[in-house]
Amino acid sequence: MPYARFVQIGRVCLVNYGPYRGSLVVVVNVLDHNRVLAEGPTSKVPRQVLQLTRLSLTDLMVPIQLGARSSTLAAAYAKAGTDDAWAASSWGKKLASRSKRAQLTDFDRFKVMVARKTKASAINKQVKVLKRSAA
What we know:
By secondary structure, this protein is α+β, with helices and mostly antiparallel strands.
């Protein structure tokens, strides 16, 4: 399968370094082979020059023209349903799960541990019953 995530106008990227880490931005202009002009319409990332080493390209695209205005970008972003598509992707789900898990309190972690033990115990009982009936 050929590589499909190219740096291009309208490409949605995830910022992986800096103060806006974890935010989605859209490439508005490609400045050179190292830098792009990007803006995050819903993540409140202002239009700025970002290095490509600080971005992770996603499969998502927004249909915009070169140097689109902020209002045009926001409208196209909403029309394309980018936030919903990101939330439905496995990458977005994994990041949401990590963030939710990082915000757990001590008691929440305890409840998760107890639930895992209960589930493992129930599975082990079922396995023993199946082994006995198969023998």
